[in-house]
Amino acid sequence: MATKRQRTTPRRTRNSASWFRSKLAWALILLLVVFLVQAFVFQDEGLYRLYQLKKQIRASEERIEALKVENARLEAERQRLLDDPEYLEKVAREKYRMAKPGEKVYRVIIETKKEQ
Q1: pTM of the prediction?
Q2: What would the mean pLDDT of 79-100 be, rounded to a whole number?
């Protein structure tokens, strides 16, 4: 008669204590990961706040550059007003409606029809 070959190594059986310990270990690891993500990403000094601050710095630097360009344009306008009497006269006539002595300034008023 042929006999069945028996296993020499015993089958692993899950006992409830080791199963609980493995599940508890995974739960603790998950909890630790959640805590670390929350601590490094969402706190006041976290990565999201750092991203917001860098974005704000870039916007401020762009604003500074725009103001430098505007400042240079205004400085050139100022210098031209100081150096060029014809340009000064032109600006005074057009912008401030000034006239030389003896000249008359006419102001054109465009009337629109009132709705009835």
Answers
A1: 0.52
A2: 91
